[in-house]
Design goal:
There is one protein chain. This protein has about 240 residues and is of the alpha+beta class. The protein is built from four helices and 13 strands. The chain has helices spanning about 15-25, 80-85, 120-135, 155-165, and strands spanning about 1-5, 30-35, 40-45, 45-50, 60-65, 70-75, 90-100, 105-115, 145-150, 170, 190-195, 195-205, 215-220. The strands form two sheets. Strands 3-4-5-2-1-13-12 form a seven-stranded mixed β-sheet. It has a six-stranded mixed β-sheet with strand order 6-7-8-9-11-10. The protein starts with a strand and ends in a 15-residue tail after the last strand.
Length: about 240
């Protein structure tokens, strides 16, 4: 399975999606900072599972219609940063979809995630990540889960990696940095967190009109997922 995650930078890069899907043979497409009122229902064989509705700039998940079936969707509003309260760019920051593989007859979960911006503390973003991962279990507690997106976490990633491992997940970075607009802020921003997936590779794709570079996750779900630690939803 090939999953592309892309922060569109206020919808500016929406015109690149057809090329990205066709060039890399994507099976799932997860978007952030999309104008959800201007998204097509279909992109090169990928069907829109759902998009968030309460955001000025929202999330969306597409899936390959001849391979998967979308059975359940869950959008989640997470703890707000000051930036969110004042400018209100996003309320729903996680969108999860339970997919059924038609040929293999197995279910798994994919999610698009967008953490609070860098004006917020890392502790708030960890709280958002923890809550989002816990919420995904409501779509299927023992199913393979893959959450991709803009984590806005360029420094102290080792702390974040330990944090998600305590929930039974693994954090995967791409092979090169995913944000290059400002020299001081350059680094890895776009990650994949997973449980029950064999992650073959996470690759950073060439830069387009967005200040974020898309990432391509190549993975396959495993059977019999059991998280080693119960998810916690308290403060970090």
């Amino acid at each position: 399975m090939k999953v592309i995650s892309y922060n569109l930078r206020k919808h500016r890069a929406v015109g690149e999606l057809v090329h990205l899907v066709e060039r890399h043979g994507a099976d799932v497409l997860c978007l952030q900072e999309a104008d959800t009122s201007d998204l097509p229902e279909e992109i090169s064989g990928l069907r829109l599972a759902e998009s968030t509705q309460r955001n000025r700039l929202g999330l969306a998940v597409y899936y390959r219609e001849n391979t998967y079936r979308a059975d359940e969707v869950r959008a989640l509003a997470l703890k707000k940063s000051l930036h969110d309260r004042v400018l209100k760019p996003a309320e729903e920051r996680m969108l999860g979809v339970r997919l059924h593989d038609i040929d293999e007859n197995v279910d798994f979960i994919v999610a698009s995630f967008h953490a609070a911006p860098l004006t917020a503390l890392n502790s708030l973003r960890r709280h958002q990540i923890r809550t989002a991962l816990a919420e995904l279990q409501q779509l299927g507690a023992d199913l393979p889960s893959l959450m991709v997106g803009d984590y806005n976490y360029p420094v102290f990633k080792e702390h974040l990696s330990q944090h998600v491992r305590e929930q039974g997940y693994e954090l995967n970075l791409s092979d090169s940095r995913t944000y290059t607009r400002y020299r001081f802020f350059r680094g890895h921003y776009d990650f994949a967190t997973s449980v029950g997936f064999e992650i073959d590779r996470v690759r950073t794709l060439p830069q387009g009109l967005s200040d974020h570079l898309p990432i391509l996750v190549t993975a396959h779900p495993l059977a019999g997922v059991r998280r080693t630690v119960e998810a916690q939803t308290g403060a970090a």
